[in-house]
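3.2 Worked example (two chains)
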Amino acid sequence: PASSGVQAVRASGGHPRAPPPARRADMVERQIRARGVTDAGVLTALSKVPRERFVPEALQDRAYDDTPLPIGFNQTISQPYIVAYMTEALGIEADDRVLEIGTGSGYQAAVLGELAGMVYTIEIVPELAERAAATLKELGYGNVHVRAGDGYAGWPEHAPFDRIMVTAAPAEIPAPLLEQLAPGGRLVIPVGEQGQTQWMTIVEKTDRGVVSRRTIPVQFVPFTRNPDR
């Protein structure tokens, strides 16, 4: 649901008619590794997940472009660099339990599923949740669980979580997500009002309390809630 505020959005520079695996490799080299994402697991995950399966059919030729793309319902699939940046920032271990708020297309959840033991992802738009769940099932991501609902309250039945990622921007960090973050856990979230500068924020729950730091300016879709909440 976002593009970086510090990286120019441009075409991938690859070969749009090349087979998806070749375009995927080009994306990883040009858009991700070249910008400083070096975690081997993250690069491998981005090399494996078929991004073209998570965009509308009419946009599949643009699946590996260096830009967010619309997926309907005023939502987007994030720019590949941002997916990689946030995933690397999480620092996922193989047995981690990960919560994602904002499933969208399901692409980020698939990337997380390549790295984590278990992924729980919540999407407020029921149609997107259903579509993402179907795509993830077709691709064999049995460790990714999708729920339609309001992500503000997290997913307490499966808490605590070692890692939490939020792919929409609230004005401030939802308190329930901090509560569901395990000791030693990490939360990556864009924070800021719409129309103003948003900042990627990395939060860690340490033995000294909750510590947060801002990294790069970004622009994400707003964090929405059900109107009856």
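3.2.1 Second chain
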Amino acid sequence: LPFYPGSGLRRGDVVRSIDDQALDRVSQQPGGPRAGDVLMYTVERGGITTRISVRLAKSGPMAAWASLNWPALLLAASLLGMAVQVFRRRPDDPAAVTLLAIAALGGVGVPAYVLGGQVIDLAFGRDLGWQVFGEACLTLMWGAWLLFVLVLPDPFRSTRVRRLLALCGGLLVAMYGVYLLVVLPGSPSVAVTRWRLLETSFIPGYVFPALIMAVAAARFLAARRTAAGLYLGWLMAAFTFSGLGLYLIWQLPVTI
């Protein structure tokens, strides 16, 4: 559960009911609460059950999120600026096009992932369009990163690029299918089922960084004695550093 300043809810709270109704029963009600309504959440916090009144806001806390996550915004803006400059100089290069796609997809997907879907949205199945769109962008971003290391620095060959694009897309679809087969049978509630259906980027976020580092290393070893070897070496070093940082700073703490 994301931390929304002023809501009374905290990161790690487990919502058990809303207005004394289990989430599955809430989801069966027609209509639903509106912005400005005050709801009573029953949550577990640190092993203690407590009741918290929550007033539904008219819009998401984007300003609060931006102030807490300004490094991510700065990184996204820097990546977009670099991608635009590279694309302007080499518009026919598939790597430049892919880099531009990475910057655009990540700029949308990361905020959607951090903000997350709120319990009330998941319970009623409403207002999830932004989350669905953001997760799709984040998922495609991982495929674009893999495509980037596959096509750099080869000259433009449309047939080969299309085949690699199909390969990346097929991997994403296959991972999502396996993920649903594993997690959906054990979903304890309708709200959890909806959340798991939204998590298209969950498995790629763990698998693709390692896959990307492996592909970059293989490309470097194959071309290390060529003119492109130096560039691929720097690329592999950058992916290794950022991939390890992702696992150690983001994925590992979330998992444990």
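3.3 Remarks
The chain has a mean pLDDT of 80.
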